[in-house]
Specification:
The chain contains seven helices and 21 strands. It is of the alpha+beta class. The structure holds zinc ion (ZN).
């Protein structure tokens, strides 16, 4: 193929959303679609952590974009052929592109601040569906993260220009810039005035004010360094708005106000734990009274059913009953078809009962000689029948 050089409009004008261009080459590819090369394009192919643009050429969806000839040629894939020599009208899905520019520029701002403050390098960048992530070769404290976020937003308020320049790698020797990889061809430097200079191929906003807001969502240790997740621009606003509405909903349902909601929540947690303690005490009292109604030295297995008892309650009651008899004491909690149980005995080897329950009732259970625990998916009547007729 003849080497075509595509003029990349997005390299100097990230806001160009429609353009006219001439078709230089059109050929059917192995998938039955058509690869188109234009003399110029505003379509950004994937690169620098940013996905490729979506949009249309003469109304046809651009399905894929790729680069060839060491990134000098951009190939657009469409469904139907377009004649060579034709002037086509290209249109970029600017909503998506602008959002990516906001987030990508925010990444440069944060990485520049982090490099100048702490000397850590950005070694990974991914623009995901829910958040964008940046990986650094160093560790941060919460205070440092807060500071980075504060300074990043300050850079937004200052509305400084984002400039682009091109130079050969050897011309860049005396320029200080960040770069993830060694670049052999022409360097495109993205400079955010006073904040960062970075080699990058992707479109960015023209001034930092266009970003609106930068929100760091979290950070965690990752491969010996740190992964920071963030959102910027409209995506950050939507995310923050979602959380705002959730907090508002909770606040309204508690008849509280948003400023006091954390204190209200802590107070509720305290009240809840007090209620739980009181409930446990009441339940223990109830089971103690209930246990006292069983005769001492009773000569029968004791089977007890309750719809909704906790494992702790079941164990508490079975232990009380085990003091009454050397036979089997079993507590089944749940409804027909789905019981949890705890069973114990001071006189019977419960591991044998466990085995019989597995064989006869397909229970899933296990434990020790004195006590077993498990679940069984059968009716209460089957359980009674097992203890009265099958077992002995
Ligand atoms: Zn970049």
């Amino acid at each position: 193929m003849e080497i075509f050089k595509t003029d990349k409009i997005y390299e100097t004008d990230g806001h160009c959303k429609n353009f006219e261009a001439e078709v230089l080459w059109c050929e059917e590819n192995s998938d039955g679609m058509f690869d188109i090369i234009l003399n110029r394009t505003a379509f950004f192919p994937e690169g620098g952590g940013q996905s490729s643009d979506e949009g249309t050429l003469d109304g046809q969806d651009v399905l894929f974009l790729r680069t060839e000839n060491n990134e000098t040629t951009i190939v657009h894939t469409v469904k139907n052929p377009i004649p060579v020599g034709k002037l086509v009208y290209g249109e970029i899905n600017m909503k998506e592109r602008f959002s990516r520019m906001q987030n990508h520029t925010a990444e440069h701002i944060c990485s520049g601040i982090i490099y100048s403050l702490y000397g850590f390098n950005n070694i990974g960048f991914h623009m995901g569906q829910d958040e964008i992530t940046m990986d650094f070769d160093g560790l941060f404290t919460q205070e440092q993260i807060n500071n980075i976020e504060f300074l990043a937003n300050e850079a937004v308020y200052k509305n400084v220009p984002v400039k682009f320049s091109f130079c050969k790698p050897n011309e860049a020797d005396n320029i200080s810039y960040r770069s993830k990889k060694k670049i052999e061809t022409t360097l495109r430097l993205v400079e955010i005035e006073g904040i960062d200079v970075c080699a990058c191929c992707a479109p960015h906003v023209s001034r930092t004010g266009e970003i609106g807001v930068i929100k760091i969502l979290g950070f965690q240790k990752y491969k010996g360094g740190t992964r920071i997740s963030l959102l910027a621009g409209e995506r950050a606003f939507n995310e923050l708005n979602k959380h705002f509405n959730n907090v508002k909903k909770i606040t309204n349902s508690l008849s509280s106000n948003m400023n006091d909601i954390c204190e209200r929540f802590e107070q509720m947690q305290k009240e809840l734990s007090e209620v739980k303690i009181a409930k446990t005490a009441a339940k223990q009292q109830y089971y103690s009274l209930l246990a006292s109604t069983y005769q001492d030295n009773c000569n029968d297995n004791i089977l007890f059913f309750d719809e909704n008892a906790t494992v702790e309650e079941m164990r508490f009651f079975v232990n009380l009953l085990m003091a009454k008899t050397t036979k089997i004491c079993a507590f089944f909690s749940g409804l027909d078809g789905n019981f949890k149980f705890i069973a114990g005995s001071t006189g019977v080897d419960m591991t044998k009962i466990s085995q019989a329950l597995r064989t006869e009732l397909h229970a899933s259970c296990g434990g020790k000689t004195q006590m077993i625990q498990g679940s069984v998916c059968t009716a209460a009547s089957e359980i009674y029948n097992f203890f009265e007729n099958v077992l002995f």
